[in-house]
Amino acid sequence: MVKKLKQLLLPFSFLYGRIMAVRNSLYDQQVLHAQEFELPVIAVGNLTVGGTGKTPHVEYLLRLLRSYRVATLSRGYKRSTKGFVLADGQASAATIGDEPFQYYQDFKRVTVAVCEDRVVGIKQLLEQGPKPEVILLDDAMQHRPVKPSLNLLITDFTRPFYHDYVMPTGLLREPRIGAKRADAVLVSKCPAHLSLEAQEQIRLLIRKYTHEQTPIFFTGYRYGEAISIGNSTALKKEIILLTGIANAAPLVAFLKDQGYTIRQHLAFPDHHHYTRQEVERMQEILQQPINRGSSLLTTRKDAVKLTSPELSVLTKAMPLFYLPIEVEFLNEKEAFDKLVVQHVQSRLK
């Protein structure tokens, strides 16, 4: 049934793909203008709808570039505000979006801003004081009005772009050939044991759509110790898992591998904003006999919303934890770091 439905959607995918291809061609031929800036502007994006791991990679770059004045600029998906907003003490996941608010909370020296129009957003950031030395554009692969100085494309190991199709048949935002704009490709969510031979096979498939010299890197996740944001100091091995992310499969696999028993998985859509009623329902689930003594475990992205002022009065009384993650390169970490740092240094001369 699913296969037949996808076949029926193919004409719509072809039409959408052609529209995106024409749009990209107009930018490539400079019929449509793309604004370029003197300072390093690094775009982190993908070709796919849904989570490919952009946020942990942006955080990796923020740590890598900590010796520079860095600003992040995002659209601020599902935020309640419009236009350019600079994160400050009044910011929340509702006003600037969950991922920008996560950057704001976790990277105190980084300037965090959101704006639907990235050209306007960059110009506003350059008028702020102190002026940033580097700007990271979060989820900007398809935002063609800005020409980044370095374009980093992320593709998920479990659903690589070269096996996918343009929406609505598949999950691609544009045709696969869009990968040719990438200055480097990062294959995310890779298993730690991925062999060099398997990596080379993936490189060959990716290079059908990129320039021959485009470097390709492989990353996975390193999970940290669970952090309590509730009333308990120790995470139990029996858990209720709470996620509002696009793809929770890698997290579920990790937890099972570590010996956790997932009593129940409360899976919400990506970027979900939790309500008081939903949190009260979580309290009820924890009180059920089968779940007595269990902990509630979530992601950092969800934690920033669950600890908002309107919900923290409830969540701080729950055995609630989040599991931090960081990007870990399978190999060639030094080569990637050098590529980024040398690019930044060359633009700042």
- Residue ranges: pLDDT <50 for 5 or more in a row? none
Secondary structure tally: strands: 14
Domains, number:
2
- Structural shape: globular
How many helices in DSSP terms? 11
CATH class of the largest domain: Alpha Beta
- Give the overall average pLDDT: 94
- The CATH architecture term of the largest domain is 3-Layer(aba) Sandwich
Secondary structure: helix percent: 25-40%
Task: Give, in order, the helices and strands.
Answer: HEHEEHHEHEEEHEEEHEHEHHEEH
Class from helix and strand fractions: alpha/beta
Q: Which strand order does the major sheet show?
A: 3-4-2-5-1-6-7-8-14
CATH third-level topology of the largest domain? Rossmann fold
Descriptive overview:
The chain is of the alpha/beta class. It folds into two domains: 2-68 and 133-220 and 329-348, 3-Layer(aba) Sandwich (Rossmann fold), CATH 3.40.50; 227-323, Rossmann fold. It contains eleven helices and 14 strands. The strands form two sheets. A nine-stranded mixed sheet has the order 3-4-2-5-1-6-7-8-14, sandwiched between helices. The longest helix has 27 residues, at 2-28. It is globular and about 65 Å long.
